[in-house]
Amino acid sequence: IMCASAKYNTRGPALIPRMKTKYRICYITLFSIVLLGLIATGVFQFWPHSIESSSDWTVEKRSVHDVPVVKLPDLSCRMHTCFDVYRCGFNPKNKIKVYIYSLKKYVDEYGTSVSNTISREYNELLTAISDSEFYTDDVNRACLFVPSIDVLNQNTLRIKETAQALAQLSRWDRGTNHLLFNMLPGGPPDYNTALDVPRDRAMLAGGGFSTWTYRQGYDVSIPVYSPLSGEVDLPERGPGPRRYFILSSQMALHPEYRSELEALQAENGESVLILDKCTNLSDGVPAVRKRCRKNQVFDYPQVLQESTFCVVLRGARLGQAVLSDVLQAGCVPVIIADSYILPFSEVLDWKRASVVIPEEKMPEMYSILQSVPQRQIEEMQRQARWFWEAYFQSMKAIALATLQIINDRIYPYAAISYEEWNDPPAVKWSSVSNPLFLPLIPPQSQGFTAIVLTYDRVESLFRVITEVSKVPSLSKLLVVWNNQNKNPPEDSLWPKIRVPLKVVRTAENKLSNRFFPYDEIETEAVLAIDDDIIMLTSDELQFGYEVWREFPDRLVGYPGRLHLWDHEMNKWKYESEWTNEVSMVLTGAAFYHKYFNYLYTYKMPGDIKNWVDAHMNCEDIAMNFLVANVTGKSVIKVTPRKKFKCPECTAIDGLSLDQTHMVERSECINKFASVFGTMPLKVVEHRADPVLYKDDFPEKLKSFPNIGSL
């Protein structure tokens, strides 16, 4: 007010200088007051200070380290948080019981149906469950509940009203112990990768999960069923090279993906076939059964059988029915869909049946696939067809696989093994299972019996006996004297060893004599060893025995060999060169269970045993076939040893040095595969070595320091 009055003073000119001075002083004073106020406010706000407590208002002084921690609830479901296993109770058969709600029609307040009539696919799914060993019609005995509300295809649903219908179910309880099946989730424009219907604690068996929506260990990723599976009968085609190397058959692909595929075809020519929707079909021809390339029309899905690899790209949804078609054709799927959770990936080993390529690596697809060995491609072709037959070909297969996965979570001690989920059943004269029924590993104290097959190499035989006797776990040594024209040495000439030594004379000179179930074999473990194998150390043999104890139904040996398919000759061949793979071990030094001696002698298929004795070769290959066929498992190679080198052996007495040896061995493999009706040998890329074997560590602290060289 003072400043204002000074500013608007109307007195005479004589007072103007004094008024100007007052005006200046006024504003300086006002500015100073405002400045001091701002400074005081800043000091109060930012200067470290505390508020002293008073009797009227107290604030508790507390360090940040003393603040109580409040843990927010985990909203993501797991079996131990959202599933009530106590409802499953004790079941002597280790099988969950599944109840299916009775079918009802749900309508809104206007009488309009909430969802369409139940689909044919969902009806087949419910029928499969009701016909299975999981089903119960007693709601009080049920462990798992399946609604009769069809949510397979979200396109047919009214989201809000469907959620209300689910909430009306008598045992819903926020979805606890309920299972929903959905194959086509989401809708335009974003196409969510999981069902948009609120489901709370309910499990979802979904056909298009991504890593963002999949609840690990709770939900189940299932295939998107292809209707063509029930309409088209594609006969199984044997593995091997096909007309095209890469084929793409999907329609309505994203333009960016299609341009990259077209570039791939332009670069690699006729080995790549990119198909699209046909636009010039005659009336009455179903477009879903045809694919076109320019003016050329192809039958679908039959054309898939003409390619080695088939591309499976993501579409609007991650899950694509074309994956099922590709598997049915025995074509190896090349899956290009980042973050996609593959169907039944909780139990299925997709590396054995497919190639997964990141989307950014799509231009490098051809070179990536060229690096896959032909043998691996053929195994993947077989595995792809097997996956379709076992888990994709019908709604029944999908439903039962889903329930089995949930069952294995609830009864893990009775769960199906990896081999049962992933190994296709071969045509065998005996079922693939562990024939030994050994719940525990054999006791180390029992040891093993060494069986040495010999003819007349006495000096070498004695050296073998001396070396083998140094193995701590040797229990007995049995010499099979295979020479009917010469007597074995006198008792006084044999090496003096710490374990019983028994000599058995045979009636005929047969290689199969080494695998006879002699009464003298009292241990479960048998070491078959030739009379010229003098290079194996006692550490190598003891380690081999320890490995066998962990895998008593396997052949455990030292030098490995491999069988390969010769595409030029169209037959199997025997391979002994350096490779990364092994499918056999030589029984010139190998551990196995004595049970296999009985099978070899009395249960060998066909004329294999007589054929071996007549040709004086391949008894070791025959034993490899036998064990693999009975167990469905691979051999185990131990230590780096690759070859047996015998310094005293010559071309006269060394069978393996015969120039025709490799040719004969290849003939053996083809002969045995024909008799068995399949190729039971399993190829693996690993071996067993002792811990600390190559570590820079004092030798005296290693359990097996003396492991031989190659």
From TrEMBL:
Enumerate the spans annotated as Exostosin GT47 domain.
93-372
- The EC designation for this entry is 2.4.1.224
UniProt KW Endoplasmic reticulum keyword: yes
In the bilayer, the protein is annotated as:
Single-pass type II membrane protein
List where the protein spans the membrane. 25-47
Q: Keywords of this protein's UniProt record, alphabetized?
A: Disulfide bond, Endoplasmic reticulum, Glycoprotein, Glycosyltransferase, Golgi apparatus, Manganese, Membrane, Metal-binding, Signal-anchor, Transferase, Transmembrane, Transmembrane helix
GO BP: any one term: heparan sulfate proteoglycan biosynthetic process
**Cofactor dependence:** Mn(2+)
Provide a Gene Ontology MF annotation, just one.
Answer: metal ion binding
Mention any one GO cellular component term assigned to this protein in its UniProt record.
Golgi apparatus
Would the keyword Lyase be found if you checked this record's keyword annotation?
Answer: no
The compartments listed are:
Endoplasmic reticulum membrane; Golgi apparatus, cis-Golgi network membrane
Please name one Pfam family that this protein belongs to.
Glyco_transf_64
**UniProt cross-references to InterPro entries, sorted A to Z:** Exostosin, Exostosin_GT47, GT64_dom, Nucleotide-diphossugar_trans
Pathway it belongs to? Protein modification; protein glycosylation
Q: Can you state which reaction this protein catalyses?
A: 3-O-{[(1->4)-beta-D-GlcA-(1->4)-alpha-D-GlcNAc](n)-(1->4)-beta-D-GlcA-(1->3)-beta-D-Gal-(1->3)-beta-D-Gal-(1->4)-beta-D-Xyl}-L-seryl-[protein] + UDP-N-acetyl-alpha-D-glucosamine = 3-O-{alpha-D-GlcNAc-[(1->4)-beta-D-GlcA-(1->4)-alpha-D-GlcNAc](n)-(1->4)-beta-D-GlcA-(1->3)-beta-D-Gal-(1->3)-beta-D-Gal-(1->4)-beta-D-Xyl}-L-seryl-[protein] + UDP + H(+)
Q: What top-level branch of life does the organism fall under?
A: Eukaryota
Q: Where is the Glycosyl transferase domain?
A: 448-693
Q: Give the first-level EC class, as a single word.
A: transferase
**Similarity comment:** Belongs to the glycosyltransferase 47 family.
Q: How does it assemble?
A: Part of the heparan sulfate polymerase, a dimeric complex composed of EXT1 and EXT2. Could also form homooligomeric complexes. Interacts with NDST1. Interacts with GALNT5.
Described by its record, this protein's role is as follows: Glycosyltransferase forming with EXT1 the heterodimeric heparan sulfate polymerase which catalyzes the elongation of the heparan sulfate glycan backbone. Glycan backbone extension consists in the alternating transfer of (1->4)-beta-D-GlcA and (1->4)-alpha-D-GlcNAc residues from their respective UDP-sugar donors.
Q: What is this protein called?
A: Exostosin-2
Annotated organism of origin:
Pelecanus crispus
Starting at the broadest rank, the lineage of the source organism is:
Eukaryota, Metazoa, Chordata, Craniata, Vertebrata
